[in-house]
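Tetratricopeptide repeat protein, Tateyamaria omphalii. Tokens?
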Amino acid sequence: MRHSVILAVSLAGMTALAACGEKNADETVERAFQDVNVVDESNLSDVMLTVADPNEAVAYFNRTVKENPDRIDAHRGLATSLVRAKRYTEATSAYAKLVEMNGVTNDDRVDYADALLRAGDWARAEEELDKVPPTVETFKRYRLEALIADSNQEWKKADSFYETAVGLTTRPSGVLNNWGYSKLTRGDFKESERLFTDAIRQDPSLFTAKNNLILARGAQGNYALPVIPMDQTERAQLLHTLGLAAVKQGDLQTGKGLLRDAIETHPQHFEAAVRSLRALENNVSNG
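Tokens:
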């Protein structure tokens, strides 16, 4: 009898231990799956923010925000994806919610200001940047400060911000182009020409800087194409711009000659140059 009781107690203990072991094992497996899901979701978020179609990323982060409304990283992903998708009005709304959440960073506020600038709300962008401490010295912050100073015609501040921004990036072509355009609008053609040339040196594919360089040279009465990298189509487009610049300067015959060169140079039919030349010849004949 005594042996039966001991056996029963032992079996009960073994059953309890087995149950406890199964429970711990289940919890361990569940935690492991949770960890895997977190890693997978983090990787998926990174993919969505970099290589995924921007609108697909917006849909993904919209779902994530609805399922997890307190996750600031999901709100941040949504706002960033909306900017990538060029849906700037929606992006500013997403950032407005983001900056009210716990865990918001100074970088979030800078990104919010960037979205506001893209949406055309310069006043609010300036207000948001003013909330960022001056100790935050990033390329993006100074680039935005330069653009805002430019819009306010605060030229000394703009030049200082542009110069600082250039020193904070290894890819300064875009900000050099912006700085050059600022100088161009002020009538400082020589300096703008130098800055556009520097931008092209940094990024030979930056056609905007090439076109701006032509405008700066044309404004000085220099109608020779500069020695810069260009394919045949780009050459035709730059000749077109140079022709229009000549016309603006009152050099009508030079302008017509450059437009004809543009038409002949383009590998396909260059409708814009044809229209410009036709309009110029009609005006001359009517005049």
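The radius of gyration is 31 Å.
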